[in-house]
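re: ur question from the group chat, yeah i did fold both. here u go
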Amino acid sequence: MGKAFAGKVALVTGSTSGIGMGIARAFAAEGADVMLNGLGEAQAIEAVRAGVERDFGVKALFHGADMTKPAQIEELVRTAESKLGAVDILVNNAGIQHVAPVDEFPPERWDAILAINLSSAFHATRAALPGMKRRGWGRVINVASIHGLVASPYKSAYVAAKHGVVGLTKTVALEVAEQGITVNAICPGYVWTSIVEKQLDDQIRVHGLPKEKVISDVMLAPQPTKKFITIEEVAGVALYLASAAAGQVNGTAIAIDGGWTAR
C-alpha cells in the first residue's frame, strides 16, 4: 500500500522542535519530502534533519530563514521549490510567546510575536501560492491556537496574532477555493512543548502560584479532559487536512482542545 504523500513536498516552519517537528515527521512518514525551518544549535538541527531522512527514507532539507524577515521567508519557499521541486503542503507553524499584563507588555515583544506568529504566515503563503495554483493542488495548514478562538489574560500579543491567523485562513481559503487549494487552521489547546514549558515561569510570576497549581488551575483548568494535547494528535489533524478525504474542508479552524470551546 502506497504512502499518502509520496511525491509531495511539505514545508513546515518552526519544525526543529515541538509541534512543527512532529508534523514534519508525520508527513515524512507518509512519504513526503520535507523542508525544515527553525531555531536551535546547528548540531541539534542536523540531527533532526538526518533523523528524518534515516527514519523515513525521504529527502529532508533545512533552511534557517528568520521568520521576522519577509525576504528570508520568500527565499525559504524558493529554496524548497528549487531543491525539492515544489511546495505542495505549507504548514505555517512558527511561533513565540510572552506572558505579561498589557500595560507592562514590552512593545518589542508585541512586534516580534505579531511578526513571527502572524505576518510570517502571510509571507510564506504569498510566496507558496503561485506554485500551488500552477499545479492545481495545494494545502496550506496554519497552526493557530485555541487562543485564535478565545482569549486568556496576559497574552495580548499572542491572542491578537492567533485571531489574525484564523482570519487570514478564512480569507485565503475563499480566494483559492476554485483552484484545488485548501486553507485551514488547527487550534490546539495546551500542548506540552518547550514553548509551554517556558511559559511556566511567567505564569508562576503573574499568577503568584506554584508550578503544580499553574498547571492544574491555569493551564489545564479550561480543558475539560484535564490532559495536555499531544504533538501526535496535532500532527494527525494536519495529515487529515492534507488528505483527499479533506478536499472539501476549507476555511475552517479545527479546535483540538479537550472540549475547551464547548463551554
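okk and heres the other one u asked abt
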Amino acid sequence: MRAMAGRPRIVVADDDLEILALLKRHLVRMDAEVVEASDGEEALRAVRRHRPDLVILDVMMPGMSGWEVCRAIRDDESLARTGVIMLTGIGERLNEMTSPLYGADEHLDKPFDFGELDQKIRNVLRARREEG
C-alpha cells in the first residue's frame, strides 16, 4: 500500500550516518514516514519492500551506487510512480549531467539547503501524484 494518500513514505540512503540522521529528523518533522538505508543494496531492498513515494539517494555508496539503484528503480514497472532525488557531493556539473541519464527526477548537491530540498521533494511528489 502506497502512503501517498496521507503521509509520504520516503526511503533515504546515504553512507554518511550523520547526513542520514539529519535527513531523517528533517523529514519526520515534515510528517513523512522515513525508511533509512546506508548502502545501495540496502536501499534497493527497502524500496522494493516499502514501495515509497520518494527515494533520496546519495550517489557514492558502498556496493551499488545511487545511480545504479536509480536505474534499478526505473527498470522495475511496479516502481514507475516512485520519485527519485539524487543527493551528492560529487560536483554540481557532474550531478547535473549524469543524474537524469539514470532516471532521477531531481538532483541536489551537498552541502544542501533544506529549503531547496523541501521544494524539490514537493515538486517530485506532486509530479508523480499527477502521473497516476
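fwiw on the second one: The chain has one domain: 9-131. Helices lie at 17-29, 40-50, 66-74, 92-98, 114-131. idk if thats what u expected
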